[in-house]
Structures are given as structure tokens and as C-alpha cells.
Sequence to fold (326 residues):
Amino acid sequence: MSARMVGIKGIGSYVPPKILTNADLEKIVDTSDEWVFTRTGIRERHIADPDVATSDISFEAAKIALASAHLAPEDIELIIVATVTPDMFFPATACILQDKLGAKCPGFDLSAGCSGFIYALSVGAQFVANRTYDNVLVVGAEVLSKITDWQDRSTCVLFGDGASAVVLGPVERGGFKSFVLGADGSGGKLLEIPAGGSRLPASCETVSQRLHYIKMNGREVFKFAVKIMGETALEAIEKAGLHPSDIDLFIPHQANIRIIESAAERLNLPMDKVFINLDRYGNTSSASVGIALNEALLLGKIKEGSKIVMVGFGAGLTWGACVLEW
Ligand code: UT7
Fold:
């Protein structure tokens, strides 16, 4: 049985309404709007209320994606949630979301740091390509504010909360042309939450030492990201049989404007072909590429036949890219 072409049948995104600006951060830690904006390109981010978890914002994004695909929850045959901020260790956030949606299908979470959305797209696409399912819901969602150390200025200025969702299904034309995934576990220590798992379970000490929050060696992750983002995007473009000049829109993981600019330079892409919205959302990890894709569509930057390259990198260390023809 031949493989089918897979594309995006519906898309949605959601961010919590509350906005935290760089000026607000100046009141929390020793930082400045000038430092944050010039070093990262971020001006503000959205922050979930204390009682809001990842499944809640996933639900909002998924409802929009289902409506845009003209599907009901019972049409969904698989749910994959890419996240590093699940509601809890278990049950999986995908199962919590399934219940909220009223869907009747299998579901699981996928942890690949900020590459999570690309990883989840590649996994979901297999089920459609090999004819197992016709409608797969892929969600990338994070409530990073809950694992952010609001006393650590080197990380707390970077992250934001948000969710994105797509429905994957078979398409007649276009669809995904290539996927490239990668990982280098030797770099795991560069970006981690040290405690709370089976290595270092929660204790009074781990809490008092603030080990349940994101720890990052920003400089080293920056070096890795600058190298990998351009390289991986190029690999995905070549695997799709294309040249960078064929790409209409580059949708990178929204972590740092300087990383994005260096990747665009590597691909020789003018910045008007690069989609950027990190100024308004910060780094939303697994959610960022999907939120950007949805916004680019709403802004009319994607037309039928547009060739898009999406690329992510993050904790693991992991990376991933794909080429999609709309
Ligand atoms: O999603 C994937 C995960 N993460 C990333 O993509 C992040 C990758 N890394 C980065 O984006 C950058 O490394 C950062 C934005 C995190 C930091 O920028 P940088 O240019 O690498 O700064 P730095 O860490 O080298 O720090 C420069 C200075 C330091 O002071 P000294 O040692 O030069 O006196 C820091 O203490 O800036 C200081 N600094 C701050 N100052 C004001 C660090 N954070 C802040 C802050 N406000 N928020």
C-alpha cells in the first residue's frame, strides 16, 4: 500500500490574555527593557493565571483547529501533545485534553523540548501517511511560567505561555515534503529541570535549592542554536529536493532574534521571508512554531502552494525541521 501525502487540514492557537512586559519584569528582577529587547528581541509575553494548566490552553487551541478543519471531536483518531510542562507526570496531558474535548481516541505526550512541535508533526504524519488514521490532532503547548524561576534574570525574561494545534490529514496536493530530526543527549545539562524526576525526586532540599525550575547555560545553548538552526533547515530543504531560494516563508522557533537572523543569513533568505513574533510572545517552547504558523496564515503570508520551512531546537538537546507545501 503506497504512502499518502499528509498536510494540515485545520489550525488554531491560543495565548492566555494576561501580558507581562519587559517594564513589568524590571520590577521583579534586575533587568531592563533595553537589555531584554536588544539581546533577545522580546518585548512582552503572555502568562497563564495560577489555576490554568497546559491542557486548558491546549483545549482552546484545539477547539479552533477542529473548527477550521470542519471536524467534530469524535472525528479525531489520535492526539499527540508536545510539551515540557504537562499538567502532571501522569496521566498524559493528551488524555486530559481528550476528555475535555469529548474525543474518543488514543493520546500520548511527547517531550522534545522546543523541538516538540516538529517532532510531534513528524510522528503524527506517519500515522496519516501509512493510512492508520485520517485525522490526527497535534498540539504544542506550554505553561512555562510555572517552571520559570522568577528570581533568575538570566532565564525569566525569555519565556512565555501559549498553545498551538493542527489537524493532520491526507491531502491531494502539497503537504509535508521532508522531515529532519536530531538529538545530542550529551548536551542535556545545558538546559534542564534538575529535580522532580526519578533521578532527584522532590524533597524539601530540592525545593529550597530551586531545582524544580528551568536551568540554562544561555551562552552554550546560543552557540548550539546558531549552528543547528541554519544547518537543519538547509538539510530539510535539500531533502525536499528544493533550494533555499524556493522557500517562501521561514518559520523558526521563536527563541532569540539573533539566532533567527543568523539562520536566515546561512540560508541567504531576506528577513521579509522570515516570520517573527517573539517580540509579543517570548519563547513558548513547543508552542512557538505552531503559533507562528497560525499567525502567518491569518496575516495572509501563506497562500496555496507556498513553500514553508519550519525549524526548532531546544532541550535534549534536540532539533528538527520540516518543509511543508501549503
Ligand atoms: O528554546 C531554546 C532555549 N533557549 C535559547 O534559545 C536561549 C539561547 N541563549 C540566548 O538567547 C542568550 O544566551 C541569552 C539571551 C539567554 C543571553 O544573552 P547573552 O548575550 O548570551 O548574554 P550572557 O548570558 O553572556 O550575559 C551577558 C551579561 C552578563 O553580565 P556580565 O557577566 O557580562 O557582567 C549577565 O549577567 O548580561 C547579564 N544578564 C542580564 N542583564 C540584564 C543576564 N541576564 C540579564 C538580564 N538583564 N535579564
User: Anything to note?
Assistant: The mean pLDDT is 97. The two ends are 25 Å apart (CA to CA).
